[in-house]
Design a protein that fits this description.
With 405 residues, this protein is of the alpha/beta class. It is built from 8 helices and 20 strands. Strand 15, helix 1 and strand 16 form a beta-alpha-beta unit.
Length: 405
């Protein structure tokens, strides 16, 4: 295996979370202690310059809902935006909606990994609601990114980005970190090469979790944004869906189903490299979106004891026929160790609508095949679109389910 270190260190300055104009994040400013509400606190940076900001909390499973809470002014951040705050009972509620009496946001997960929110100045609306972005409120170093090139099975190299949180010390071998492996490493920590000009905000999410007392996590992103993406992230498990066009129409002239090679690359090359060169513990996760979500599901089913949790985000489950999934899962043995599987899909745009029904059905198929019912959850959002903005807010909940914080 050839390893080429491409970029030894790439470090952002705390508070410098600048995105493209339509997705500029608030500065990371510490709120004065005398203004902070008691208990867990959430913050809203008022990019839209609303005259008032209200927060309504509810529980996704029980439907229990709070009365609207008028958020109080906390400070003005370094970008000149007013920041509001309020206490949040995250043991009781797992969703928040922000409004100004007229406009409001989509339902937004709230937990220890998501306590800073904002709306970009010209953010798009989904079903008449604004998408709330997430940012790190408070002081937390930006961490470091290292990039390496690893030999892939088809004769080319793949870039792997490894983010370590602030405080990570390679010399401190006593302190171990869990690792989350992900596809689409190009959109996890920034927007370069991302069509939607949005990102997953993985580093901001972990920084927020650390600010709220959680452990740091190493994030490993495998870059999958070139012409090989379809091939790499689509396993050959059986008959395609009748609604699907032929492979060439989907993946180009060289289309093939070779997700097995990507799985082998992850298990046999990426994980051993990371565990040899970084201070890691035994807790591993894998997550991806779209075809990456399909591949994440496949990897979780192929290696049920290797990972602690799997994130299946807006997955292309519709690519295969319903009976293909039944047959595939029926051949698996889930009597031993299995990962916690978090499944999410929206239903707002064309791609999410295509994938919605097949995604909604997969949990039932898993349970029928013997997968432990308490280790899988499906979250559906009718307002959700197929982009990194929605994946960022549900990424926080995936971590909560996977790591049980």
């Amino acid at each position: 295996m050839t390893v080429t270190v491409k970029k030894a260190a790439e470090e952002k300055t705390p508070g410098d979370d600048t995105k493209p104009e339509d997705e500029t994040k608030p500065g990371d400013d510490t709120k004065p202690e005398d203004k902070k509400p008691q208990g867990f606190t959430i913050y809203f940076a008022n990019n839209k310059k609303w005259t008032e900001v209200n927060a309504t909390f509810f529980n996704r499973e029980t439907g229990e809902k709070s009365e609207p809470v008028k958020m109080q002014f906390a400070e003005q951040n370094s970008k000149g935006e007013d920041v509001y705050c309020t206490a949040a009972d995250i043991d009781k509620y797992d969703r928040v909606v922000f409004d100004n009496g007229t406009d409001k946001t989509t339902d937004t997960p709230v937990n220890k990994a998501s306590s800073g929110f904002y709306i970009a100045s010209n953010a798009a609306q989904f079903n008449g609601k604004f998408l709330a972005g997430v940012y790190t409120h408070g002081e937390q170093g930006a961490g470091k990114i290292e990039s390496v090139e690893l030999d892939y099975h088809d004769g080319y190299e793949k870039t792997v980005k490894i983010w370590t949180p602030d405080g990570y010390d390679p010399e401190d071998t006593e302190k171990k970190y869990s690792v989350l492996y992900m596809s689409d490493g190009q959109s996890l920590f920034g927007t370069e090469g991302v069509r939607s000009a949005r990102e997953w905000c993985c580093d901001e999410t972990v920084r927020t979790l650390m600010n709220n007392g959680g452990d740091g996590i190493i994030i490993v992103g495998i870059v999958t944004n070139d012409e090989n993406r379809f091939n790499e992230l689509t396993p050959a498990i059986g008959k395609l869906s009748p609604e699907m066009p032929d492979l060439e129409a989907i993946g180009g002239a060289n289309a093939s189903l070779s997700g097995e090679k990507f799985s082998d690359f992850l298990v046999n090359d990426v994980i051993p490299y990371v565990e040899k060169n970084y201070n890691t513990n035994s807790v591993r996760g894998f997550a991806g979106s779209s075809n990456g979500g399909l591949e994440a599901f496949y990897i979780g089913m192929e290696h049920p004891g290797l990972f602690s949790y799997i994130g299946v985000i807006s997955p292309a489950m519709d690519f295969f026929a319903s009976e293909t999934w039944d047959e595939y899962l029926s051949k698996k043995d889930f009597s031993g160790d299995t990962a916690r599987v978090y499944i999410y899909c929206g239903n707002q745009d064309f791609i999410e609508k295509l994938q919605h029904d097949a995604t909604a059905e997969i949990e039932g198929k898993m349970k029928k095949a013997g997968y432990p019912a308490d280790k899988v959850v499906t979250v559906l959002d009718n307002d959700g679109a197929h982009n990194e903005g929605f994946w960022a807010i549900y990424f926080t909940e995936m971590l909560k389910f996977g790591l049980q914080f």
